[in-house]
Specification:
Bound molecules: inosinic acid, magnesium ion
Shape: globular
CATH topology: Rossmann fold
Oligomer: single chain
CATH architecture: 3-Layer(aba) Sandwich
Number of helices: 3
Helix content: 10-25%
Structural class: alpha/beta
Largest sheet: 5 strands, parallel
Number of domains: 1
Number of strands: 11
Strand order of the largest sheet: 4-3-7-8-9
Strand content: 25-35%
């Protein structure tokens, strides 16, 4: 699907970041990770649902041996973060002494990634970093270091490329913002 404007539920969105720009940003992250983690066989932990497309495109560009697993945390409903992060579901890998890279679609308040970080750090990984396709810098409520960032965006609601508005829009190849 590639329309310039789309309607999801009751809201209209227009293209904000075209696919080619997304893929360029991802290539740069993948090159940095491939160099930073040479010889370390990192384990990527992608956060479902939003990061599935980011993870797929990023991993195709990573040129070193690596592993990937998917997990789920839930904190976001409608267009505002609830600020509550429930249990981590689906983490079966042993992460002690592993080099972990969390893959997140977007860091907004930072609640999700911060809570996940605390949980994972308690399992004693060798190292842990965050790669986020998008970052809303104005919204960060935690002292988070996001090492790999695709693009910083203003405090606007976006959909597409894995991101949804109440379930819709994840399949869009571009990132759209609210009109
Ligand atoms: P945080 O916990 O506030 O950082 O929110 C992180 C999660 O909220 C992300 O993983 C997204 O799933 C969701 N989210 C944050 N901002 C947006 C947005 O603009 N559009 C769609 N989902 C968003
Ligand atoms: Mg998400």
């Amino acid at each position: 699907m590639t329309p310039a404007r789309i309607t999801l539920h009751d809201k209209t969105f227009e293209i904000n970041i075209p696919e080619r720009q997304i893929l360029q940003a991802i290539e740069i992250i993948a090159a940095r990770i491939s160099s930073d983690y040479a010889g370390k066989q990192p384990l990527f932990l992608a956060i479902l649902n939003g990061a599935f497309m980011f993870a797929a495109d990023l991993l195709k560009e990573v040129s070193i041996p690596c592993e990937v697993s998917f997990l789920r945390v839930s904190s976001y409903q409608d267009m505002h973060s609830t600020g509550q992060v429930s249990e981590i579901i689906g983490l079966k890998e042993e992460i002690k002494d592993r080099h972990i890279i969390i893959l997140e679609d977007i860091v907004d308040t930072g609640h999700t990634v911060y809570a996940l970080l605390q949980n994972l750090i308690s399992r004693l990984p060798a190292s842990i970093e965050i790669a986020a396709l998008l970052l809303k810098p104005e919204c960060q409520q935690h002292p988070l270091q996001v090492k790999y960032i695709g693009k910083a965006i203003p405090n606007e609601f976006v959909v597409g490329y894995g991101l949804d508005y109440n379930g819709l829009g994840r399949n869009l190849r571009h990132i759209y913002k609210l009109v």
